[in-house]
Amino acid sequence: MVIKGARRVALFLVVCAATRAASAGDGPLPNGNFEDSPDRSQMDGSTVTGPDAIPQWKTYGHVEHIASGQKQGDMILTVPEGSYALRLGDDASIQQQLSVTPGTIYSVTFRSARTCAQNEKLSAWVVPGGAPDEVHVQTLYTSIGWDSYCWAFQAQASSVTLVIHNPFHEDDKSCGPMIDSVAIKTLYGAPQGNNNLLRNGDFEEGPYIAPGSQYGVLVPHRDERDISPLSGWMVLSYPNSKVVRYVRTPQGSYAVELVAGGEAALVQEVDTVPGSSCRLDFTVGDAGDNCVAKDQQPMRVQASTADNSTTVEYSSEGSGGSVRASLEFKPSQSRTRVVFCSTGYHSKSDSSGTRCGPIIDDASLVCASPTPAARRLLR
């Protein structure tokens, strides 16, 4: 398997003037679930033969309009919502033009599933905009075969073209990930609270989650160079294919579920005054998703900075409980990195194999100015 060169780059840069740009309001994109089917004259079996065959979208390369229950060899392809989805085969892409507000950050959510290779991935970007970002469709986190992923961009013009692309070349040109339920959400850049140095510590600003979703949205590796779909926060992982999950709690608010054990961490860097007295408060709990972990293997969350760390144990009943925890420290640097990670791996108690983990919520970091004596010692 190799990643092809840029033979289709010119196609991605084309914005069709005749296509009406969709206004980027919160929710599904026009025909984002691909239920508006192509005309049969532009199809060869399930394969799309014309770039304008899928209403509201342009397609390039080997794209298939997949019906739920369609067979691929001995495998039956399922669709998570409605009756249809798309499969992006050899070097294929889909794109849609959007009306946006320049300078505003948007998060794009989509569902995806592997069909052939273990290490499938998708690239996403907008034109005009930056370089493609990769989203790994590798580890399966749910029992239904589909996971929801998110990606974010900052608009550089009032009209942009969203591109989602399969960068791999397979011997079988039809092989590639399936995609469904493409949606968008405006992110307003959650400010810090009154005395809270953390931005978006309550996690109320994040990617679009479809109403009634049981699984939330996976947030992939995003470092300080990237635009995060979870305002204020980075997701650091090793390897960089691991994720955290953005979920809706039983109380109707939002939180982050640590589903990848120690392979992915939730991170934020803040300005601090060396020698000040700081206290990090946060909630550890479960998302009410039957993620049971007790007795000999409770959930364990490690919260840390460069100057101190603590491990919080939580015996989950899987019904939405929580405990409050704190970490006190005196920062030694003017920038402090706050890190949350889970130290174990967990699955739902229903034997489905769906991965789960502890949630982090309501995080706050409050610091008091250092005393005169402490300031003298730091000089």
TrEMBL record:
One Pfam family here: DUF642
Major site of localization recorded for this protein: other
Annotated Gene Ontology cellular component terms: extracellular region; plant-type cell wall
Tagged with keyword rRNA processing: no
Domain DUF642: 28-185, 196-363
Tagged with keyword DNA-binding: no
A molecular-function term among this protein's GO annotations: enzyme regulator activity
Keywords, in A-Z order: Glycoprotein, Secreted, Signal
Compartmental location: Cell envelope; Secreted
Protein origin, superkingdom: Eukaryota
Region (Disordered) location: 25-47, 304-325
Family matches, as InterPro entries: DGR2-like_dom (IPR006946), Pectin_Meth_Modulator (IPR052437)
Record's signal peptide: 1-24
Protein name stated in the entry: DUF642 domain-containing protein
Gene: LOC100841598
